[in-house]
Design a protein that fits this description.
about 120 residues; rod-shaped; about 80% helix; 4 helices; mainly alpha
């Protein structure tokens, strides 16, 4: 037997120590769940804001095109109203009220579709 006190750790212990250092340490499962929740919320805000902005631009463009044509006055007014509702949805989405923004996007699109039916 050797009397050395600075003996080398066994291979299994050394591999376990290396694995602990290599993996990211998550203190609690709640931290991982919170990070995932915040990522989903951020994506929902961006999606609501982007969709609201896109529908707003489409509604304004349609209102301007219908305003210059021989359509009844109700048609461009419906497009403009739908665009205003979608703009409000984009603002709500940017503030984190994504569920209300979704309902406003649906309502604004329905108003624009209703205006298209009057043509």
């Amino acid at each position: 037997m050797s009397g050395r006190t600075d003996s080398v750790a066994e291979p299994a212990e050394a591999e376990a120590e290396e694995a602990e250092r290599a993996e990211p340490v998550i203190r609690h499962e709640e931290d991982a769940v919170d990070a995932e929740f915040h990522d989903e919320a951020r994506r929902a805000r961006w999606l609501a804001t982007g969709t609201g902005g896109l529908l707003t631009l489409a509604g304004v463009a349609a209102a301007l095109l219908r305003l210059t044509g021989p359509a009844p006055a109700l048609v461009p007014a419906a497009y403009a109203t739908g665009a205003a509702v979608c703009a409000a949805a984009a603002l709500l989405g940017a503030r984190g009220r994504t569920r209300r923004a979704l309902w406003l996007l649906i309502a604004g699109t329905m108003v624009m579709a209703l205006g298209d039916q009057f043509d």
